[in-house]
Amino acid sequence: MPRYFLIFFLSVYTSVSNADYKDKIVQNLKDTKNLDFKFEQNINGKIENGNCTIEYPKKIFCEYARSNNKILVSNGKSLVIKTRTSYYRYPLEKTALNLILDKNFLLNKISDLDERIVDNTLINFTIFDQDNEINIFFDKKTYDLVGWQNTDIYQNFNITFLSSVRKNRVLPKGLFKIPVQN
Predict the structure, then answer these.
(1) What does the pLDDT look like over 92-111, one tens digit per residue?
(2) Angle, alpha carbons 167-152-94 (nearest 5°)
(3) Alpha-carbon distance 53 to 34, whole Å?
(4) Which long-range contacts (CB under 8 A, 24 or more apart) does 105-108 make?
(5) How many Å apart are CA 160 and CA 60, to the nearest integer?
(6) What is the pTM of this model?
(7) Which of 46, 109, 164, 177 is deepest in the core (most CB within 10 A)?
C-alpha cells in the first residue's frame, strides 16, 4: 500500500510541477514584447550564426556573422533573405517562421500541449499545424525561448539555438523594414 501511495504522490507532484512550468512559460511569453539574442543555426549540417531581434507579432531581423552581409528580415507580412549577391522574398505565411513569430499562436498551442523535459534543462513543446511540425524549446530556469527546430520551405531540417536572450528592449525605428533588391 505505501508503494502505491508513493507512486500516486510522485505522479501528482510531477503533473503539478509540469503545469507550473507551462504556466510560467505562458506568463513569460505574454510579458515579452520583443527579444534579441545570439543564434546558431544548423540547416542540414551547414552552421551559421549571428544576432537577431524579434518583435511580436511576426517581425524578425537577423544579421549573420561572416557571411557576405547576409540578413533575414520580416515585417510581419514578407520574409526577405538578402546577401551581397542574392535576394529572396517570400510571403511570411508560407514559412514556419510565420508560426514561430506569432506569440498568440504559440500561447494557444502551448496551453493545449503537454511539455517534455529535455536533459533536465529545456522544456519542449511539439506543435503540429497543417504541414508543419515545429519543436519549440524554453529554458527550464528562465522560461525564455531558447530555440526551435523545423523543416523549412525547401524541406531542409533547421535547428536554431538562442543564447544571451534579452527581453523588452527599446528597438531602433525601421529595424524591420524590408530591404530593397539591388
Answers:
(1) 999 999 999 999 999 999 99
(2) 85
(3) 7
(4) 105/129, 106/29, 106/136, 107/26, 107/29, 107/30
(5) 14
(6) 0.86
(7) 109
